[in-house]
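#lab-general

N.A. 3:47 PM
ok so I finally got the sequence cleaned up, no stray characters, all 382 residues accounted for. can someone with queue access submit it? mine expired

B.Y. 3:52 PM
send it over

N.A. 3:53 PM
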Amino acid sequence: METYKEIIKTTKLRELFDKSYAHLESSSIEIVLGNPSCDQDSFIGSHILAVMLGRVPVVNLSKEIFKCKQDLVKICDIMGVSVDELVFLVKNNDAWVLKRGDKEYPVSKINIKAFLIDFNLPDQDLLLSDAFTVDHIIDHHALLEFNSKVHSQLTGMNIQLHAGSCCSIIYRYIRHVCSKTLEEKTGSPDYKFLLLMSIPIMTDTNCLQKRTHDIDREGVDISLGISDVLFETAKTVMEELKTLKKCEPSVPTNMIVQMDYKSFDFPKQYGKKTFGISSVKYAYDEWVARDGAEKWKQSIKEFVEMKKHEFYIINCKVHNKREFYIYNPPSTDFIEKGIYEGKPVNKRAVLNDNEITVYTVDTAISRKIIAPMLFKYLEQHK
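B.Y. 4:20 PM
back already:
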């Protein structure tokens, strides 16, 4: 990773960050906002796109949870920016604020134009503010439901479900809208920081081995080529970050469930109901044994109640096995029809506790896949 760090030092990235963050003091700002799970795809994609467009990059997560993500903390180090310099979108006493260091900028007092990446619909509470609007979306997740305030007022929307990584789409967009600048700087180190775009693409496609489309291969080839970095070097960096990502055993449960978490709205006919899905890389048996079954169950209960979800799923993939824990299924046939779609149900009790039953599913059923499946089930069973 030191190779990447040394390359980034020779570029304009630090200068561009300073210019982007300076906009925070304005009464009207343009931001790039990643999704609330804030993985590598969302974090790197939002920050690189923001500095290329002269917008403020915003982390859609609290600073406390972000600091638990050791892979992203290391990426900050590689980029030459400290965690304290980042801008976080958080809720303080039911009011949204942008927070950077000790300074807070109330969303209600700023005209914000947001470019969403790696998701396509912001929190419903944000949309209540007339000062918050969305002008662009780049994503590789399905649009579950049309929102007139967001989707009918866009300047542009680019959703490509086949892309393994959202950064693949973002990088192609950057090469299009910034083509003149990049062409003028050919041979200069100024924009070699675009090398960073290869990290989430390789992570999300397992080094171009899974869920890979031509746009992903193109993204890796060009981003590595701009800095003359070998594919094997990139693989080493990805593996080192992958190791750092597996940090859940040292993190309390109430933080684990928020480290890679997304909230979803029910179909409109249900009113203002939500469900949540957390992706975790911590084996249930080890996790429950660490906390103790009763404490673990209480932690999950408190989290779901805090988020006011109707139901909640933990999507855990470890050792090439994916298992769902489902808190408060919304109907008696939800697991059989919503999760398994009529196929045989495969379940087990964690540490012989029947109140912690988990369901084995195909390893390919990531959150990106299961969320539309559940939305469709709910639509059909109202």
